[in-house]
Amino acid sequence: MKFIDEARIALYSGKGGDGCVSFRRERCVEFGGPDGGNGGKGGDVIFIGNRNLNTLIDYKFKQHFKAKNGQPGMGKNRTGSSADDIYIPVPLGTEIIDDETSDILMDITKDGQEYLALKGGHGGRGNASFVSSVNRTPRQNTPGGAKQEMMVRLELKVLADVGLLGYPNAGKSTFISSVSAAKPRIAGYPFTTLKPHLGMVRHYKTDMLMADLPGLIAGAHAGKGLGQQFLKHVSRCSALLHLIDGMVEELPEVSYAVIRNELEEYDKEFGTKLADLPECIALTKADASFEDEIINKAKQFTKVTGKQIHVISSPAKMGIDGVLDELSSFVTAKRQAEIITEEKEVQEED
Questions:
Q1: Phi then psi for 16, rounded to 5 degrees?
Q2: Residue 23: domain span
Q3: Confidence (pTM)
Q4: For residues 276 and 234, is the Cβ–Cβ distance under 8 A?
Q5: Torsional sign, CA 162, 165, 168, 171
């Protein structure tokens, strides 16, 4: 299935049914009282999170969602039928954005989470509801509430614990395929990954959802290559795994600086905090390099950055455990912090 992470759709709630003006007409009843019923409520438009969806492709082909109108009231005090609400299922991680103001209306992150986007019009009052001690035969009614409409943008940001970063052909797809059941396309040329691939990784007692993202190049934050389109998916991650090809002649610290600059520039432009996420760094393709050469690169890289540098080979499973140890510690710390935050919010509500 094609991966689509953006869509623009039009929403229309239902109009409320009009109230009815009616009077009793029965045999032997000369002056029947008012018996006009109220109108029914129009349908709401509701978004709902669905964990079984992972793309917005359905909304590239269907872009208008209209709830039905409520039925008008009828005589004999019969209330018009209310219209059914319409539910729009979206993948977890979908932001619902007002197309006119660009305000984020809701961020759907849980299965079954609902967001009422548009409320249907209320039912109008029939003349029976206007009876009073001074007006025994009212002839007024009220129309049903007006329908509402709006345009929204849907933007999907994959919910992953770890995002894989690096140049094209740095070994990201090979890594995720070696530690999970994900099977992304792998080839010896750049840009074989054109959409995010997710893989579930179990490392001892920690489960991590890992996202293999298309490779980044200089200028990605400004839309060059495929970077800008997919950097947004990194914003939800708990940690980053930065993979650098250990076989290229370019010093790894140069490649690293380019990608870090892209994260920082993206943060400035979109107000995110990608550059602040915990990061694990690894030199890949150790099995295809001279051992002394790649180890010396790692040592020099450590001196420049002051960070621990892993040397790995995904096909040979070399150095993989050390990387997963570091990533699982980042993910666990993030989850514990979220639990503490939730507990504090509950206590404040109580």
A1: -75, 150
A2: 6-156
A3: 0.74
A4: no
A5: negative
